[in-house]
Amino acid sequence: MPIVRSSASDSTEGWWCDPTTEFAFVGFSYEVTPCQSLSQLQKDFADMRNTFHSRYVRIYGTCDRNGFYDDIITAAWDNSLGVHALVWFGFDGGSYWKNRRDTLFGTLHSNQKAAFVTRGVQFGSEPLFDDVLTPDQLAAQVLAAKSNLSSLGIPVTVSELAYGYQERGGAQSVLDAVDFINAHMLPFFAQTASTGDQAWPLVLKDLNWFTEYGNGKKIYLDENGWPSVTSSSVQPNSPNAVASVSSEHAYFTLLDQHCEDLKKVAGGGVGWFAHIYTDSQEPGYGIYDSSGRLKFPFAPKTSC
Question: How many CB atoms lie within 10 A of CB 8?
């Protein structure tokens, strides 16, 4: 979590909290495909910070409007939020992600406040699972990004499922390259899924895999949640999996109940994001419904 200051200096040294102090709830995933206006970003980021005590916002999707990430920086700075920025590959193949990468990196170098807002850059979402790049190609992108951003002190990671690594033979080159681990945790899709309150063994299974192969690196659960409804793109792999508001609520309550367990995980404990801020961004996964109402009481622990 950034220290609140009135202006940016020349160095980020001492700016960010030690990652080992970051566990429990840290913030929201936030879909930017709608290309929100600066005023909307300000409103939503203020709500994240003031209502839910978020430290970070994790960008999901993409907006290719010129200057959009400058608006993200402004809104995050004004509301004392850090950002997990994203190089978005999308789901339609192609190489336009390279343009997005170069545009983002250009903004990170040109905007004076960028390094003081951007806690990390992700490559995603699920580039291994979606077979966008081979593990070695993805690792090379991570290493090149780390070199590009080294003068800014911005770390680099990949936003991915444990299964995405596993189905690529473990993709150890990627795990070795990243600075920290942004792990997707979507237990609703497990073959043994039932209800959100019963998901801990599924969470623990993936966490144990990441701790075994992650070289002791910090872990965040970034795309992390349980749906309240199914849709054409959200279908269970278990006949017992229940998509409901109560099951979504139960899943986040479960993470709260295991705060001490998450705190003990190697690398300084596990911080988790709620995916996603509102149902209008991804149906069923929001903390708010599409009308802007809270679907259930949500006041997660930010420490324990």
Answer: 16
